[in-house]
Design a protein that fits this description.
binds FE3-S4 cluster; pyruvate-formate lyase- activating enzyme; binds S-adenosyl-L-homocysteine; binds iron/sulfur cluster; OB fold (Dihydrolipoamide Acetyltransferase, E2P); Rossmann fold; 5-stranded mixed β-barrel; alpha/beta
Length: 445
């Protein structure tokens, strides 16, 4: 492209969705950098724009379509700019059709399985000139492309791709394909490189990390992988997401408790407190089993931070079911919760289930759950008052009264005052204020 425009070409990668998509964008940036691109933060200043999209809820899709729509301005400003759409939304046939028909200025569309073909798709567009669409393939693992990550101290590391669970509401298995685990040796060597490069808080990524290794025949399951990572020398801590309660075993919690570099923090999405709804969701555990897991985990790690996802308004969920969710939340007392109102996803099992409850009723339940959790989060954070926490400072605070921000081992956000040049360092921070969302404090020696 540089030959065509006579200067260094500029790219902008806009990412929607979860950490998996963020990790994919790091791969895309790496491929772009290899092709000679540099990066700009705004699409309107770029010669090539990539929208890496998410399909998890309708709202995510609307945002992506909105951004794609606005990208027509990029073409007005720069006629030769190239617009690409990729990610989970792009993997769906109905989205491909809609982009073909209604978004003529999108030059390249590629699905999650075609990610590694991006350089050849771009070459095709530049040489042949026609629009390029590629949503083919499945079951690939991309190796050999080193992600272009953000500066230390935080990094993501994908250990597996795809999902086999087919929770009845969820689009992920349809757009990400079946579970496939990366080779443990490749993961360990990438992890060591990250530690050597100064990364100190590394998150292992997968839709269901607890089934890591099920598709490999080497006897290394997720607990074993964690142990091997824990044995890597260096100044780091490791966390992981996401864990599915049906596969989270006592062995996993024992391993977490025994490994000093594994954060005592777990994101264990429960989705709902009613067994009837859990069954319709195809989650394959009961609320009693879930509570048993939590009790066991806490007995091994009294300091464990626990977070979760909950969907309100699943088709057929009634007031009694919802009350059971509230009961479960009161029993567990999560550190924080991600709450969602059910969103119908075309092609999933739940999309054709009768859904008699009104949007107003669902919203009312959602608000009630949020209010309960906010109170619990506030009370849980208050327990940190006057305590000294080990915090990894990872950047500057957006709160004007504080200099830095960082995270505790339990991934609690801390706003901090302290002397200059602390980004990327561990500090002992004395907490002197707390809120529903964060802790606040001063560095102490
Ligand atoms: N693999 C992870 C997370 C997947 S998506 C897991 O199994 O937990 C993150 C969260 O989005 C899910 O946990 C769920 O709470 C929510 N979600 C997924 N599909 C949804 C839908 N159709 N409507 C509303 N929320 C949804
Ligand atoms: Fe979706 Fe369920 Fe897979 Fe998570 S485990 S990605 S919610 S199908
Ligand atoms: Fe969205 Fe795909 Fe992640 S649908 S939540 S970006 S796996």
């Amino acid at each position: 492209m540089s030959q065509k425009i006579g200067r260094t070409p500029m790219a902008c990668v806009v990412t929607f969705g979860c950490q998996q998509n963020e990790a994919d964008s790091e791969l895309i940036r790496s491929m772009l950098a290899d092709m000679g691109f540099e990066f700009v933060p705004k699409p309107e200043n770029a010669d090539l724009v990539i929208f890496n999209t998410c399909a998890i809820r309708e709202h995510a899709e609307m945002r992506a379509f909105g951004n794609m729509g606005q990208s027509s301005h990029v073409k007005t400003a720069n006629n030769s700019a190239i617009i690409c759409v990729c990610g989970c939304m792009a993997q769906q046939a109905h989205v491909e059709q809609r982009v073909k028909k209604s978004f003529p200025y999108v030059d390249i569309l590629f699905g999650t399985h075609a990610l590694w073909r991006f350089p050849s798709l771009l070459y095709k567009k530049l040489t042949v000139g026609k629009r390029v669409f590629d949503t083919a393939g499945e079951g690939v693992i991309i190796e050999g492309v080193e992600p272009l990550r953000k500066e230390p101290p935080n990094a993501w590391l994908s250990i597996m791709y795809g999902c086999n669970n087919f929770c009845s509401y969820c689009i992920v298995p349809y757009v990400r394909g079946r579970e496939r685990s990366r080779d443990p040796e490749v993961i360990l060597s990438e992890f060591k490189k990250l530690v050597d490069a100064g990364y100190k808080d590394i998150t292992l990524l997968g839709q269901n990390v607890n089934s890591y290794g099920n598709d490999l025949d080497n006897g290394i399951d997720f607990s074993e992988l964690l142990r091997r990572i824990n044995d890597i020398p260096g100044d780091f801590r490791v966390r992981f997401m996401t864990s599915h309660p049906k596969d989270a075993t006592k062995k996993l919690f024992d391993t977490m408790a025994e490994c000093d570099k594994v954060c005592k923090a777990i994101h264990l999405p429960v989705q709902c407190g009613s067994d009837r709804v859990l069954d319709m969701m195809n989650r394959r555990y009961t609320s009693a089993h879930y509570l048993e897991l939590i009790d066991y985990a806490r007995s091994k790690m009294p300091e464990l931070t626990i977070t979760s996802d909950i969907i309100v308004g699943f088709p057929g969920e009634d007031e009694q079911d919802f009350e059971k969710t509230l009961e479960l939340v009161e029993k567990v007392r999560y550190d924080s919760l991600f709450t969602f109102i059910y969103s119908r996803r075309q092609g999933t099992k739940a999309a054709v289930m009768p859904d008699p409850e009104t949007a107003e009723d669902k919203q009312r339940r959602f608000d009630k759950l949020l209010a309960l959790q906010n109170q619990i989060s506030r009370e849980k954070n208050e327990l940190y008052m006057d305590r000294v926490c080990k915090v990894l400072i990872d950047g500057f605070s957006e709160d004007e009264s504080y200099t830095y921000k960082g995270r505790t081992e339990g991934f609690k956000l801390v706003h901090i005052n302290g002397r200059p040049d602390l980004v990327g360092t561990w500090q002992n921070v004395k907490i002197n204020r707390t809120s529903t969302w964060a802790l606040f404090g001063e560095v102490v020696e």
